[in-house]
Amino acid sequence: MIRPVPHVAAMAPYALADLGSxxxxxxxxxxxxxxxxxxxxxxxxxVTQALLYPDPDWIDLRHAIAETxxxxxxxxxxxxxxxxxxxCLIRAYAGDGRAVLGTEYSYxxxxxxxxxxxxxxxxxxxxxxxxxxDAILDSVTxxxxxxxxxxxxxxxxxxxxxxEILRLRDDLPEHVLLVVDQAYAEFCDASNDPSGIFALAQxxxxxxxxxxxxxxxxxxxxxxxxxxxxxxxAQVRKLLNPNNIATASQMMxxxxxxxxxxxxxxxxxxxxxxxxxxxxxxxxxxxxxxSHTNFVLLRFGDANQATEVDQTLKxxxxxxxxxxxxxxxxxxxxxxxxxPVMEHAASVLKGALS
Length: 354
Ligand SMILES: *Cc1c(COP(=O)(O)O)cnc(C)c1O
Prior knowledge:
- With about 350 residues, the protein is an alpha/beta fold.
- It has 2 domains: about 5-35 and about 260-354, Aspartate Aminotransferase, domain 1 (Alpha-Beta Complex); about 35-260, Type I PLP-dependent aspartate aminotransferase-like (Major domain) (Aspartate Aminotransferase, domain 2), CATH 3.40.640.
- It has helices at about 5-10, 35-45, 60-70, 80-95, 110-115, 135-140, 160-170, 195-205, 230-240, 245-260, 260-285, 305-315, 340-354; strands at about 25, 75-80, 100-105, 120-125, 145-150, 175-180, 205-210, 225, 295-300, 320, 320, 330-335.
- The strands form 3 sheets. Strands 2-8-7-6-5-3-4 form a 7-stranded mixed β-sheet, with helices on both faces.
- The chain is globular and about 55 Å long.
- The termini are far apart.
- The site of pyridoxal-5'-phosphate has 14 residues, from helix 4.
- Pyridoxal-5'-phosphate binds near residues 81 and 224.
């Protein structure tokens, strides 16, 4: 009998949304709008280079990111999605019975990465649907080596001000690594200035994760990046796959981040659809926390109602994301899509609830 190692045998496969081919996906928080035309042009130019391995050091892309966010390019590593970076970080710093702290509704992939690394993963209660910095601080036991904080949160869409994260860092023990996953930060950079958070990486004890998958509209390119203290970058680098990001993806991401005006316009258009949609849902009696992302969390009266509404939406060709796996069986998470899709979704919700 050929046997896997026990901790892998015991793991459930990572659950992504089950997309039927003729369904409209509102399940994966992909962008409602296409990426910068400059990114698409860059990809076309890259096809002729497929003969060669990509740049293993992502030099042009790292410089484009560094210029945009006023960072040292040596502090940046790029991953095949930020998922690759999360996995490598947890493997490098947790494992061996060491504990990772996440929050109650935090991004499920961190828990999965902890299991892969044979780390202990513990969740800290949130307050309502928002991260509580005090609850995190109260939960730091001696075995905790890493705190994983998603801000804004997925699936809640809520956020804590960056000043609160600075307070968290100040009050955490020095030996605990703080990882701040900012996959949706482009949706709130204007109101929640990130410079203090990036400065924490400079100080040596904090890692900031970002991605091209959401606001930049490049989920299919698989590019994430992270700002690391240099000593941590050196360790994580050892675990990344060499040549991890295809040339076309690197070129698309670099062109996209150099076209920030396009990204900001996509964010603005997404918000202009999101907020009225959330209000229409509230008018139907659905509880919707204010979102700082490109999705909204819809909280129904109870789990049965959420399941029934989900089935009605599916019959209408709309696939939202069930939240039972996150301990929110009374919720569905809806990615903000273009205006006609959201119009359709609002009318199906209205029919289902009246
Ligand atoms: C979408 C998402 C990611 C990013 O994933 P990629 O691997 O970069 O596509 C990371 N964290 C959170 C919270 C997300 O929602």
